[in-house]
Design a protein that fits this description.
TIM Barrel, alpha/beta, 231 residues, binds pyridoxal-5'-phosphate
Length: 231
């Protein structure tokens, strides 16, 4: 099937699923932001998805993103960084991305602060939570999240816009639900101590975005269910 037709069908299916999840959760589909997780997907596919109505895309690797973002610079895309960010890539990342979804260490915050001062920027971030406490993944331990956020508040160039997580993969998405519930509770617990800009809960991928929405996601990050298999 032609690429465009395929992505169009995928997107229609996603919208239908989001609609259903929103009905269950008593929410409006307009409240959910779809982020196209575009790592290892071609600029051509991203352009098709953009034309269908997706305005936010997320990349995991600064180098890969640099090339693609430059090829797509005619489009008003809101680029988010969703991978693990090395401190030596922060400078470049701030030129490329509107929002960093994966702030998870003070050292990284220090570097963002430093580079943002030089560029005279305020950088919106999400704090990544290692909700499954997996050794292989980034993110702040759920028990340390409040303490971490209090420290981040001291960085005046960083604006905390919410929380993000990538829970353990489970073939049966129902098994991921408890992690989403836990994230939602953390979010609600922290919210009273934050300003109004703290409003995003980024969770859910191709496999489990419906359940993430039922449990309170405001941003879902969808890769293969939208674009097809990664290269
Ligand atoms: C790749 C990736 C996604 C999307 O995963 P899919 O299974 O392709 O939907 C979402 N979030 C992060 C952080 C990713 O790295």
């Amino acid at each position: 099937m032609e690429l465009k037709t395929q992505i169009k069908e995928n997107y229609a299916k996603i919208l239908e699923n989001i609609q259903k999840a929103c009905e269950k959760a008593d929410k409006k589909p307009e409240e959910i932001k779809i982020l196209g997780a575009s790592k290892k997907q071609s600029p051509e596919k991203i352009r098709i998805a953009f034309d269908l109505g997706i305005k936010i895309f997320g990349e995991n690797y600064v180098q890969e993103a640099e090339k693609k973002i430059s090829e797509l610079k005619d489009l008003p895309i809101e680029w988010h960084f969703i991978g693990r960010l090395q401190t030596n890539k922060v400078k470049k990342a701030l030129d490329l991305f509107f929002l960093i979804q994966t702030l998870d260490r003070i050292k990284l915050a220090q570097e963002i602060q430093k580079q943002a001062e030089k560029k005279n920027l305020i950088v919106p971030v999400l704090v990544e939570v290692n909700i499954g406490r997996e050794l292989t993944k980034g993110g702040v331990d759920p028990d340390k999240i409040e303490e971490f956020i209090e420290e981040i508040k001291n960085f005046d160039r960083i604006k905390i816009a919410g929380l993000m997580c990538l829970p353990p993969y489970e073939e049966d998405p129902e098994r991921v639900r408890p992690y989403f519930v836990k994230m939602r509770r953390l979010f609600e617990k922290i919210k009273p101590y934050m300003d109004l800009e703290f409003k995003e809960l980024s969770m859910g991928t191709s496999n489990d975005y419906c359940i993430a929405i039922e449990e309170g996601a405001t941003i879902v990050r969808i890769g293969e269910a939208l674009f097809g298999k990664r290269n």
